[in-house]
Amino acid sequence: MTLYQPFLDYAIAYLQERLDIQPYPIPTGFERKEAITGKGKHQEVVVTTSYGFQSHKLRQIRAAHVQGGNSLQVLNFVIFPHLKYDLPFFGADLVTLPGGHLIALDMQPLFRDNLTYQEKYTQPILPIFQSYQKYLPWGGDFPEEAKPFFSPAFLWTRPKETEVVENHVFAAFKDYLQAYLDFVDRAQPVTDSHYLADIQEAQLSYLHYRAEKDPARGMFRRFYGEEWTEEYIHGFLFDLERKLAEVSLVQQ
Ligand code: DBV
C-alpha cells in the first residue's frame, strides 16, 4: 500500500496543469535509494524517491517519497519560491509510522508576526483551515521552537484512521495547493531592496531551521547512512544555501 502516491500524482498533475513547470535537477544518486531493514519475517525494502520541478516564480518544488510497507509511508513536499517574491512556502509533511499518522500542512510565512503579511497570505486560508477542524483537529504536542515558522492556518493533526488520511487529509491537501497556486498567480516581483533583503534572510532562516531539525534525519541515517543523509538534506531537500554559494562563485 502506498498511501501517499495519490497525493504525489495529484500534485504533479495539478502543477503541470496550472504552471509551466520544468524539471529541477536532482543530484546523481539521489533520485532513488533503496535499503533493506528489519530481520527475518519483518524485513522490508525501504525505497526513497525524489522529485524536483521549478517554474518562473517557484525556485524549487520538491518531494521526497519514502515507501517501506504499511507502517512506513512518508511524503514530504515543499515549494520554495524564488527570492524576488514574498510568497510563503508550501509545506506538507505526511507521515505514517508504526505509531500512527502525523500530518503537517501549511503555507509557512516568511514574516509570522507581520499583520500586512498575514492579511495577504493567511487570512484567505483561514476559512479552508476552519472547514477541516471538525475532521482534522489539532494534533497536540508540537515543538515550541518550530512555532515561528508556522502560520495560524497550520493544519497539524494525527488521524487514527487511514480513511481520514485518504479522504479529509487528501481534500485539505488539494485545497491548500489550489489556494497556494492562486497566490502564485497573483505574486508580483518585489523591487524594494530592503524588502528583498528581508525575504532572503527569512528564507535562509527557514531553511536553516528545516535542515538542522529535519525530523527524518534519524530515519534516513538508519536506512542509508550518515553521508548519504547529510548530502540529501543539504544538497537536495534544503539546498538554498548551496545554490546561493554557486551563484556568488559564478559572479566573482
Ligand atoms: N520531515 C521533513 C522531511 C521529511 C520528514 C524532509 C523526507 O522535514 C519526515 C522526510 N517528519 C518526517 C518524519 C517524522 C516527521 C515528524 C519521518 C517522524 C519523526 C519520528 O517520529 O521519528 C513537521 N514533522 C514531524 C514532526 C513535526 C513535523 C513537527 C514531529 C517531530 C517532533 O515531534 O519532534 N516537517 C515538520 C515541519 C514541517 C515539515 C516543521 C512543515 C510542514 O514538513
From TrEMBL:
<dbReference type="GO" id="GO:0010024">
    <property type="term" value="P:phytochromobilin biosynthetic process"/>
</dbReference>
<dbReference type="InterPro" id="IPR009249">
    <property type="entry name" value="Ferredoxin-dep_bilin_Rdtase"/>
</dbReference>
<dbReference type="InterPro" id="IPR022827">
    <property type="entry name" value="Phycoerythrobilin_Fdx_Rdtase"/>
</dbReference>
<dbReference type="GO" id="GO:0050618">
    <property type="term" value="F:phycoerythrobilin:ferredoxin oxidoreductase activity"/>
</dbReference>
<protein>
    <recommendedName>
        <fullName>Phycoerythrobilin:ferredoxin oxidoreductase</fullName>
        <ecNumber>1.3.7.3</ecNumber>
    </recommendedName>
</protein>
<comment type="similarity">
    <text>Belongs to the HY2 family.</text>
</comment>
<dbReference type="GO" id="GO:0050897">
    <property type="term" value="F:cobalt ion binding"/>
</dbReference>
<keyword id="KW-0560">Oxidoreductase</keyword>
<dbReference type="Pfam" id="PF05996">
    <property type="entry name" value="Fe_bilin_red"/>
</dbReference>
<comment type="function">
    <text>Catalyzes the two-electron reduction of the C2 and C3(1) diene system of 15,16-dihydrobiliverdin.</text>
</comment>
